[in-house]
Write a structure and sequence with these properties.
It contains nine helices and four strands; from the N terminus they run E-E-H-E-E-H-H-H-H-H-H-H-H. It is mainly α.
Amino acid sequence: MPAGSPGGLSGGPAGRMTVDGLGRTCTASHPLTGAAHMSRPTPADQRTRLGRIGGSTVDEKSFYAAVAERAALSKEEAADLTRATLEEIAGQISSGEVQKLAVALPDWLGGNLPRHGSAHPVALTDAVRQISRRTGLTGEETRRGVAAVLAVMRELVDRTQLDHALFQLPKDYRQLEAT
């Protein structure tokens, strides 16, 4: 994108800086083609990429607010619970499904999912107990929160991708997500 074009910014010592829609910047152009050299998005840029819920875009704050509202938790509790829930689920499904789920989620949500070898599913009651210990929430708050995280994710990611991940878990996870 040439400097000064729509969506780009001009500036810098050489008078040429371009920023594209992905947050990549360019301060120089290719010597032969004149095309801008675009940098990779920084981790901060990736955390702000948006997902979709109900046909509209959603950022981190909106996602956590939706979980908080459905689970009757504070936004901070919802954020902690969301991270703990995703890490717990990722620890139970195969590394291939973790990778697919991470790609289906917005970068700010899927980028930090732990990678491992094979699937090691545990009963929902054990997972809720572990998440409850991590977050300091009661068992009932945690159970409601996990259901809220799964429901909001259902609206955010491709249904098939979430189903693939959940089918590696005991059926009580899918039953909880359906409530």
